[in-house]
Amino acid sequence: MIHKIGRVIQVNIKENKYTFLGLFLFYILGIILGAFAVNDLDLQQQDDMTKYLNGFLKLLNNNELNRMSLFKMSMIDNFKTIAVFWALGFTVIGIPIYYIMIGMKGFTTGFSSGVIMGVLGVKGIMVSAICFLPKEIIIIPCIIALGVNGIRLSRTIFRAWIKKANKDENIIAQKIGTYSFLTIFFSIFLFFAALFDAYISSGTLNILSRIAS
């Protein structure tokens, strides 16, 4: 079973390597734009961000943060993304939207990291590297793989729509099963990413905030 899953993933990567690369580049571009966006904040916005982050760190220091609630919120966010990505695969217009959404994900990551480093300075680099980078290493490959999975199905549906051939409908029906299976498979990793975010990242951030205070 594990060998079969590995074979499916290997073939998928080989056949769609340029799509993987394109989505990854959009993510990197999003990070760069997000980091630069921090510099465009005015003094009032920077002050608001500083107060928000300091308030969050205070909650951690006082152990007032409900990690189960944080886990639920992270799960909801992840599975909203999964649901949208899965649904887009059945549409012709889904292809550019995947690139936009992954670029926005990169923007959020770059902006958040920029704010943290701006508020905490050198310690912010350590916080981003220890608390957030491991989670991103889990989430981003899964999100990109889900995007490639959806783009692949969208292209198949588009070609079938252009040709209007009955035999292509059978191919689509076969690919929907693989498409849904891969979506569920990568969703498992996003479940563990939510656990990591709620318990490991927040716990590590708690320790680092105590050291910094």
From TrEMBL:
Cross-referenced InterPro entries: SpoIIM (IPR014196), SpoIIM-like (IPR002798)
Domain of life: Bacteria
Keywords: Membrane, Transmembrane, Transmembrane helix
Keyword S-adenosyl-L-methionine appears in the UniProt entry: no
Transmembrane segments: 20-38, 82-102, 114-132, 138-158, 179-200
Keyword Magnesium: no
Pfam families: SpoIIM
NCBIfam families: spo_II_M
Protein name: Stage II sporulation protein M
Organism for this UniProt entry: Ruminiclostridium herbifermentans
Gene behind this protein: spoIIM
